[in-house]
């Protein structure tokens, strides 16, 4: 539909046209925008919605943004961070609701329903109650009143998003209540208005003792939520991260997805590139998402088969901000585009959506289109090569998560350990180890538990292996690590050459801004290559078989 | 002098009595207080002087504080952080000067002269000039005018403190000028008023490439400043950190101290326990300071012999804040006390000043006095044992600097590497290595360069050694590491027992608040013991000779 047609449709119908006929009912974008104007894990400038403690935006730009989101099929948006601050918690109070409603109205024009992230302790924090116990009547009454107030201002609000019992945020567990108690208490307040609770499942022990080898963070979501299947109200949606760790470059799918038969589920992805290059390094997420959807969940089904059935919603963390090109890295626009397209239709291939994006954004001139498409399709594996291949994960600098720190998380409380010594690396997550694989369908448990059948790209996610372990290619694990890091760096050099060759076909701004970021990426790749190779060399004292430089 | 006598003296003379006849003319306390009320490396609550961007204090309490400082011989104070923010830089402008002068007046009552930390780029930042080039006449005119303004309000100001070309702060080097050009340009503006420039020498490459084995951070201060001896005006004092690294638990003395024959020098210590337990862990700094003063600087002289001759001033970073007991940890009061006493008379022993402090603070009951004194005297070596013995340094968590992270700084830009591999650890700083030892007097160069004569507690500061290197006690380096960490932890347990036994002789608040911190210290010691031991065990695969638990 052309924009002129679209506008006409809008005039005639008083609402946005349905842009897709998707099997996935809810296609949700979560912003992690703070009301002070900063964006948690944001790499595209300040917040589009907030500034200095206030709701504050350029209406014309938000209209552009809503149209942009609607055009790729997104139909739910949450503007405030799930890590709700006290000020942001007040978005459901009379003081801020008129302003929130105005913002919601801009999105409504384009058929996008608003979600508000709320603080689970609001009855105490805002209501002055002595508790936020979900089974306490004064608490449930408070939520009911709060919902009634909110719906007066935003009658089509999709619901509330909640991060509870997660990373030092209070939740029902702190009061001895279940996650279902917590979610249902709010859901019942929203129910009369047709609203839902989007309840995040990122619940794990974030004060783990590194000495404790039994606790295994990837097991946490399943352990906490699977036993509660059937106890959640029908307007609760559990929002489950696609992987059991935290948006790493390579993880298996979460065993919780699809495991529950009587609970609404949403899969949560991350468009913002927290662990995947931070919109400095090129990383086409569509490639990873296609893999996620294609991965088996049993001997007969893939994740894709869950979509529109057990999993009725897709949420993702936004990568947009006030930067003129929305996403910092111009090619990172493709990630937002891909999210919308794959959320509408998870059967699309990365090749198809990236191809579309290049066509719509630049041109279909094959001299540009083909090389750029190949470069983007390759970008994920290149990033994986020079960072943490084989499912290794977590060798990242602490807190900000850009660049290498092989032991940065090794002795911390976050449950993220590889336990490398001079002989071996990795955690045995089979039933002989932490038992994590037992959370999967027996077919996958068997597949992952056997080193021979475990997909090699996930080998170090599931197994502890000696450095001289032979991979299928005949290389040792150590030599594969070295090779991978050298190759990854070399391939970034290749990206730079490709990009330069495309200069004649690109707008100047796009060319030069991406060229600059590719140089930053090369520097990052060199840092990753040298730090990780040196780390393994110091541990093993085994030199590169091809005599390349590894620093001492 | 009793307080009643003191007050009478004050009335009769209109100024504070000289509390000491010290060889050290200037005994300076540097606060790292930010104007927003936070304190950089502060562990005793918010700032005594600032809040929310303003000068803001309780006059009665500041009077108490000034009296407290005067009573231990401190006669200079700088209240604002050397990392000057734009707002704090404005303390030398007409807008803030009346308030600054009022604060200075409180200290003046007690004979303490004020120092203001200024931003080297002020002529551009505040004056609107296009440059801050110290050789530009508009710039020197600007400083002259600024000094004239300041002295109208604070006629006895001691001078300006400057951190330039240091940790991302601009300075003369950015404009191709020398440190002397920079310091002198401001000194000449202060000269007519009798003021001085306190010019910090913490200049080093803070964006070092870890691959670069030639650059060695400990060499930096000497390399930057020694060649300029004789080029500094006579009202410039170079403020030199006692050690070449950064207030580590064990460092050699800086070779710059005493090396310059024609330049005024101040030694800079740190009372606030940035790397020494953060006022959670017990650490009597007097012990370390006594060692610093006792250490040789040649075959015939010690650091103590420099004091009052080449080194005419002592500065230290304060450990005080709004906490009711001033220093967070009640026993950390002893560190402020010790600093004042040792600054007045560097020949005092740690035993003498700590004994005084216990007597003045609690009692001279030998049942309290003796055990507490022994515990405090031991506290530095205990902390050293469970953290980084043998001069190892820098195995600390990044940024906040509390707790262990063996490779936290290993691949960073700060120039702080131990380069441990499976066979050896440490940096060779002799002339066969980075050449750092050549900055010392030939006697010390020889002493430190030979593994056999190098003081063992500094062995890993100067040498790279294999884990099976035999120490004089007959233990391998590795076994010494293990033993040291086990012992350090056990000795903290001993502290707890001692402290409990002292309960009958202590005020309840002092007893319980310190008892609580000792429990925190025990936890910290356990973390250090286990992380460092595990780190070495993973690298070496050599178990503890005594079969104690080392985690895998």
Characteristics of this structure?
two-stranded antiparallel sheet, homodimer, alpha/beta, globular, eight-stranded parallel β-barrel, 12 strands
Overall description:
Two copies of one chain form a homodimer. Chain A is 38% helix and 10% strand. Chain A is α/β, with parallel strands linked by helices. The N and C termini of chain A lie far apart (60 Å). Chains A and B meet through helix 17 of A and helix 17 of B.
Structural class of chain A: alpha/beta
Instruction: Note the gap between the termini of chain A.
Output: 60 Å
Strand order of the largest sheet of chain A: 1-4-5-6-7-8-9-10
Overall pLDDT metric of chain A: 96
Rg over alpha carbons of chain A: 24 Å
Question: What is the helical fraction of chain A, as a range of percent?
Answer: 25-40%
Order of helices and strands of chain A: HEEEHEHHEHHEHEHEEHHEHHHEHHEHH
Question: Would you spell out the secondary-structure blueprint of this structure?
Answer:
The structure is a homodimer of 552-residue chains.
Chain A: H1 3-13, E1 26-33, E2 50-51, E3 54-55, H2 59-71, E4 76-80, H3 86-89, H4 97-108, E5 113-118, H5 122-125, H6 137-153, E6 159-162, H7 179-190, E7 196-200, H8 220-225, E8 236-241, E9 264-270, H9 285-294, H10 303-306, E10 311-317, H11 333-344, H12 350-361, H13 366-386, E11 424-425, H14 442-449, H15 459-462, E12 465-466, H16 477-501, H17 508-540
Parallel strand pairs in A: 1-4, 1-10, 4-5, 5-6, 6-7, 7-8, 8-9, 9-10
Antiparallel strand pairs in A: 2-3, 11-12
């Amino acid at each position: 539909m052309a924009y002129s047609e679209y506008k006409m449709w809008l005039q005639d119908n008083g609402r946005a046209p349905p842009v897709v006929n998707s099997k996935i009912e809810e296609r949700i974008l979560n912003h992690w925008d703070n009301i002070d104007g900063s964006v948690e894990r944001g790499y595209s400038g300040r917040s589009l919605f907030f500034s200095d403690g206030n709701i504050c935006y350029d209406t014309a730009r938000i209209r552009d943004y809503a149209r942009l989101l609607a055009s790729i099929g997104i139909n739910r948006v949450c503007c405030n961070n799930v890590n709700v601050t006290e000020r942001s918690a007040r978005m459901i109070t009379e003081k801020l609701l008129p302003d929130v409603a105005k913002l919601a109205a801009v999105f409504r024009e384009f058929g996008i329903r608003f979600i508000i992230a709320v603080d689970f302790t609001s009855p105490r924090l805002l209501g002055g109650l002595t508790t936020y116990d979900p089974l306490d009547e004064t608490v449930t009454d408070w939520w009911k009143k709060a919902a009634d107030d909110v719906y007066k201002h935003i009658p089509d609000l999709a619901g509330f998003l909640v991060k509870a019992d997660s990373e030092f945020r209070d939740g029902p567990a702190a009061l001895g209540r279940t996650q279902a108690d917590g979610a249902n208490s709010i859901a019942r307040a929203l129910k009369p208005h047709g609203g839902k609770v989007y309840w995040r499942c990122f619940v794990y022990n974030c004060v783990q003792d590194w000495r404790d080898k039994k606790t295994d963070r990837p097991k946490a979501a399943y352990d906490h939520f699977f036993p509660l299947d059937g106890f959640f109200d029908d307007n609760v949606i559990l929002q489950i991260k696609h992987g059991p760790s935290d948006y790493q470059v390579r993880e298996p799918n979460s065993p919780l997805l699809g495991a529950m038969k009587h609970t609404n589920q949403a899969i949560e992805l991350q468009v913002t590139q927290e662990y995947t290059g931070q919109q400095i390094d090129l990383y086409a997420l569509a490639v990873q998402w296609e893999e996620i959807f294609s991965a088996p969940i049993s001997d007969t089904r893939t994740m894709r088969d869950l979509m529109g059935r057990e999993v009725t919603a897709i949420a993702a963390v936004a990568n947009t901000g006030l930067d003129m090109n929305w996403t910092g890295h111009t090619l990172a626009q493709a990630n937002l585009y891909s999210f919308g397209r794959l959320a509408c239709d998870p059967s699309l291939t990365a090749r198809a959506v990236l191809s579309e994006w290049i066509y719509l954004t630049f041109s279909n001139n094959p001299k540009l289109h083909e090389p750029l498409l190949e470069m983007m399709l390759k970008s994920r594996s290149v990033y994986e090569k020079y960072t943490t291949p084989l499912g290794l994960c977590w060798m990242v600098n602490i807190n900000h998560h850009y660049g290498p720190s092989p032991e940065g998380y090794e002795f911390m409380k976050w449950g993220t350990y590889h336990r490398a010594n001079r002989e071996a690396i990795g955690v045995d997550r089979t039933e002989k180890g932490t038992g994590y694989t037992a959370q999967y369908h027996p077919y996958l448990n068997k597949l992952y538990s056997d080193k021979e059948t475990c997909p090699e790209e996930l080998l170090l996610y599931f197994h502890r292996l000696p450095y001289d372990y032979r991979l299928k290619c005949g290389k040792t694990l150590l030599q594969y690590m070295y090779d991978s890091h050298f190759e990854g760096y070399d391939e970034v050099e290749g990206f730079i050459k490709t990009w330069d060759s495309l200069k004649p076909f690109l707008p100047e701004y796009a060319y030069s801004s991406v060229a600059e970021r590719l140089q930053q990426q090369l520097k990052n790749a060199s840092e990753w290559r040298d730090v990780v190779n040196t780390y393994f060399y110091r541990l093993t004292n085994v030199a590169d078989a091809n005599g390349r430089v590894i620093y001492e």
